[in-house]
Amino acid sequence: MSTFYPTADTTVRWPIPPQVYFEQVNEGNDIPAVDFNLTMQRMIMFVGATRNFPGLHHNDRVAQKRGAAPGVFLQNNSCLMLWERVVSDWMGIYGRVRATTFRITDFHLAGEVIHVGGKITKKWQDKGLNLVEITMESKTPRRVGMAGTVTVALPSIKYPTTTPRWDREGKATVVCQ
Amino acid sequence: MAKSEESKTPATTPAGDPNVTWADTAKHVGEDYSGGTIMVADERVDKVMISRYCEPAEIGNLTYWDEEVARMAGYRSQVVPWAMVKEVPTYSGNWRPGQPTRFPLDADVDFQSQLAARQPTIGDPPMPPTNAGFFTDMTIEFFDPVCIGDRLTTMGRVLERVTPKETRVGVGAFLGYSTSYFNQDGQLVAKATQGYYRFVRKDEKDIVR
Predict the structure, then answer these.
(1) For A89, A164, B29, B55, which has the most beta carbons within 10 A of its beta carbon?
(2) Mean pLDDT of chain B
(3) A131 part of a folded domain
C-alpha cells in the first residue's frame, strides 16, 4: 500500500525572500516584470477566485453582446490581481500597499499573454512613512491595457522588521523611519 | 421538483429613460445610491478564501500564505491581499437555504442570473438608455490590514462623477461611485472609487478594435 501526499504540503515552510528597504530603491528603478499567459482554464480560475460570475468573463457570446468585446475578458479585480502579484512579490513581507489607482484601456482576453511591469517614479517620506510610487503598466498584444500607480510603504534599514501602519489621515502609527 | 424551480424568468425592460440626458444625470453627483444600507459580509475571512484568491495569478507573498510569517511581520494572522480587500471578503453569498433558485428552468444558456451585490445599491440615477457597459477605472486607499477572522462591512455608494464620452465601442458616459469598507471593530480598511462606462453599443462594423 502506498500513501498519497498532496503536491502542496501545507506543513512546508517556504523560504522568506530577501526584503526590499526604502534606502535601497531609487526613482527610475524597474521592479521585476511578469508575463501572464491567460489560458481559458486560468480565466475560469480568476472568475472562481474573485466570485465574479457575469458572463462577460466566461461566456464569449455574452462578452460580445453585452461588453462589446471580441470574447471573454478579465474582470477588473482580476486585472488588478496581476499587479498584486508583481508588486507584492517585490515589496516583501514588511512592505504594505498604501493606495492604487488604475484605468483599464483594453480587454485582457483569453489566449493572450499580458506583460506587467512597473517603474519607481517617486520616492518620498510623508507623515512618518517611507513611500514609493510605482508607475505600472499591463500590456496586451495590441496596446497598454491597464495603467496607473501603486503606492507602497516600505520598511527602513533602521527598523528592518517593522511593517508600516497608518491611520485614517495616512499618518504612521508605528515608528518606521 | 422544488416549487422555486418553477418560477419564470422575470420580464426585462430596456434600461434608461429617453427623456433624460447625461447632463441631467450629472445633477445627481454627490448623492448616495446605497439607500443607507450597511452591508455585512456573509462570510468571515478564512485561509481557503485567501489561498484560492492567490492561485490564478500565483501571488507568493508569504504574509498571505504562512501564519507564522504573517505574525512575524506584525499581523494578527494571515493577511488578505490588498487587491482582494474590496472583493471576496465583502461577499454576501449568491444563494442561501430558503431562497428561490437563481437559475429558473426556462432560462436559456446565456441567462444572466441576478447574483449577490458587492455593495449596497438602490440602483442608478436617472440616465439615458444604454445597452452595454463595463468597468473602467478604480482608486483604492488602504488603511487597517484585513486578516483571517475579520468580517467586513460595506457602506455608501456615492455618485462622484458623470462624464459623457464617445469611445471606440459606443456612445455614453463614464460614471464613478465611492464606497468605504470597515472591519468588525468599525476600523476603516479601505475606501474605493470605481468607474464604469455605460453606453449604447456601436454596430460591430463601426467598433475600432
Answers:
(1) A164
(2) 87
(3) yes
If one compares A15 and B119, the residue with the highest pLDDT of the two is A15
Calpha distance B138→B140 (Å, rounded): 7
Instruction: Choose among A27, A39, A46, A129: nearest CA to A84.
Output: A46
Angle between helix A40-50 and helix B47-54 axes, rounded to 10 deg: 150
Full domain range(s) for residue A114:
25-153
Cβ distance A93 to B145 less than 8 Å, yes or no, reads no
Q: Let me know if residue A9 belongs to a domain.
A: no
Q: What is the DSSP letter of A61?
A: H
The answer to whether residue A20 sits within a structural domain is: no
How far, CA to CA in Å, does A90 sit from each of A83, A143, A156, B48, B56?
11, 25, 15, 23, 18
- Min Cα distance B62 → chain A (Å) is 7
Q: Quote the DSSP letter at residue A22.
A: G
Give the domains, in start order, of chain B with CATH numbers: 14-42+116-206 (3.10.129)
β-strands A30-37, A113-126: how paired?
antiparallel
Contact A54 B64 (CB under 8 A): no
ipTM value: 0.93
Chain B interface, best mutation among A84, A103, A131, by max B CB count within 10 A: A84
Chain centroid offset of residue B172 CA: 21
Q: Residues 6 or more apart from B80 whose CB is under 8 A from it?
A: B45, B50, B64, B89, B145, B146, B147, B150
If one counts the domains in chain A, the total is: 1
C-alpha cell belonging to residue A142: 495590441
Encode pLDDT of B98-126 as tens digits: 999 999 999 999 998 888 777 888 888 99
Which residues in chain B touch residue A169, judged by CB atoms under 8 angstroms apart? Answer: none
What's the rounded Cα separation, in Å, for the pair B187 and B189? Answer: 6
Task: Quote the CA–CA distance of B94 and B96 in Å, as a whole number.
Answer: 7
Q: According to the per-residue pLDDT averaged within each range, which of B47-61, B90-104, B106-120 is highest?
A: B47-61
Give CA separation, B132 vs A53, A67, A89, A174, B208, in Å: 17, 6, 36, 47, 16
